[in-house]
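Now for one record:
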Amino acid sequence: MIDLIFQLYVISSFWMVVTILFVQLVHYPLFQLVDMYALKAFSLDHQRRISWMVVPAMICEFLSLFYLMISLKTVLFYLSFAVLVLIWLITFTVQVPIHQKLITRPSKELTLVLVNSNWYRTFLWCLKGILLIVYYGI
């Protein structure tokens, strides 16, 4: 059972690393190129499309890591869980509100805030991936 949970954790973690890198380096900068009149629709469409990709992976990553942390009690899993909690805090206290503002009050300045504030999550998810690679030699 632990092997299966660990595999789910590895897959969901690296899914999120790749996704956050794509979003940060490719997709979020495109918000700057969207016409102001289309920014609300673009933002809504982004949320609709990205959610089906990230919500299941984030939940899987969280639950599998929580299970591994409780079951195996290794420093890696405790540290990774702390990083993931920080990612979730940033997601729901910073990124989600910015996305909501882009729908209610779209602006080019807000798209820059979106990109700049997302670097924290990008760094943290990459750190989690690096910890996994270094610790387990994946």
User: Anything to note?
Assistant: Helices lie at 2-30, 39-72, 75-104, 108-136.
